[in-house]
Design a protein that fits this description.
185 residues, alpha+beta, Alpha-Beta Plaits, four-stranded antiparallel beta sheet, 32% helix, globular
Length: 185
């Protein structure tokens, strides 16, 4: 009976992780029109975490709430708030989050929900900002994007951003070039 050698480690890492097999190039899964929402904070008084800490702590609570809702809505246990996913980034002036939403109506409805995490956090920020102006800034940018205005490329199997939020598809399912993919759903 032949036995495998134990003198050297196995190079079998499975079909997707083999060093000789390149992960696929991907694009995002089919989507309708969507909203890309950037939101962040600018820390202007880093020596005052008592002022910017509560602002920084509010976003993870909101994202956790949105992710829980997305999962509950997928199971048919809650109304879909329209949140598709998010990525948190860290820049030189502070953190920001790129969020994906089904529509501006969904985004604005969540922002106004009195029973959700956002409205109390917004009110608390405004109270603190009146007492300590300039210690921390917040900002957002909203982009309503038609489906045919979206083109994505995720090389070597990277799934971040929109692909993480809505899923991925083989790159060539929409065309071989960026110009070909732009304008397709």
């Amino acid at each position: 009976m032949d036995r495998p050698s134990t003198d050297r480690p196995s190079t079998d890492r499975g079909p997707d992780t083999s060093p000789d097999r390149r992960p696929p190039n991907l694009t995002h899964a089919e989507v309708d029109d969507l909203v890309v929402f950037h939101i962040g904070m600018t820390i202007r008084a880093p020596w005052r975490p008592d002022l910017w800490g509560p602002v920084a702590a509010a976003m993870p609570r909101m994202l956790a709430e949105l992710h829980r809702n997305r999962a509950a809505a997928a199971r048919g246990e809650a109304e879909d708030l329209g949140f598709l996913g998010a990525d948190t980034l860290l820049g030189a002036k502070g953190p920001w989050v790129v969020q994906y939403w089904r529509s501006t109506e969904h985004l604005y409805a969540y922002a106004r929900m009195s029973t959700a995490e956002h409205l109390p956090a917004w009110k608390a920020f405004n109270r603190a900002a009146r007492k300590h102006p300039g210690a921390v800034g917040i900002w957002h940018e909203t982009y309503a994007v038609p489906a045919e205005g979206i083109e994505t490329f995720y090389g070597n199997g990277a799934e971040v951003g929109l692909a993480k939020a809505v899923g991925s598809a083989p790159l060539t399912s929409r065309g071989r070039t960026a110009a070909q993919r732009l304008g397709t759903r």
